[in-house]
Write a structure and sequence with these properties.
elongated; about 180 residues; 3-stranded antiparallel beta sheet; about 45% helix; alpha+beta; about 20% strand
Length: about 180
């Protein structure tokens, strides 16, 4: 049986790569987190022994691609998360780069979509994408391409001349005034 190809099927435009420095950032962040909590101090030796192995597996599970229609993201070792965000639902991509992230050569992208359940919460966040500014611009450009096609503005079709509409609008206005006077 021949495979039928769908011309409407989304094709991959770009696959994002993640900066290996994300592993160091996560490892050190884990150490700091475990150090400042009482329960964490007990877990710190386990993190020091097994943390790098976990982070390597987590890093290898990261996947993000931009297609002609959506942004796809996968991550997780024990609990895997797979998200697909349609480009026409993306409201904004916030680029953040604080001093600690900048020290490691990392940045953070927060993707906000229409209809988010919690006000101010990100629908999806991506840390450590190589050349995140360029990736952000690519996503926004593709989103604009998609939304512009769906909302092309056409010139209004005039069925009657403007001179013929004015008397009709004046008559409607008088009728509304009469109705308002009767209600009051």
């Amino acid at each position: 049986m021949d495979k039928v190809t769908n011309p409407q099927r989304a094709r991959q435009l770009f696959e994002a790569k993640f900066n290996p420095q994300l592993k160091t950032y996560t490892y050190i962040g884990g150490i700091l987190l475990f150090t400042i909590t009482i329960v964490g101090i007990l877990l710190l030796p386990f993190w020091l022994i097994f943390g790098k192995m976990y982070i390597d597996r987590h890093f290898n599970s990261l996947f993000c691609e931009l297609t002609t229609r959506a942004l796809h993201f996968k991550k997780g070792v024990w609990f895997q998360t797979e998200r697909t965000v349609p480009l026409d639902k993306i409201q904004d991509l916030t680029f953040k780069e604080g001093p600690i992230l900048r020290y490691f050569g990392l940045s953070y992208l927060k993707i906000e979509t229409a209809g988010q359940s919690v006000q101010g919460a990100a629908d999806m966040s991506l840390t450590g994408i190589i050349d995140a500014r360029k990736f952000r611009e690519m996503v926004l450009e593709q989103r604009d391409n998609i939304t512009d096609k769906g909302h092309e503005i056409s010139a209004p079709v005039k069925t009657e001349s403007e001179n013929e509409l004015i008397p009709l609008l004046q008559e409607i206005h008088k009728t509304l005034k009469n109705i308002e006077a009767k209600v009051n």
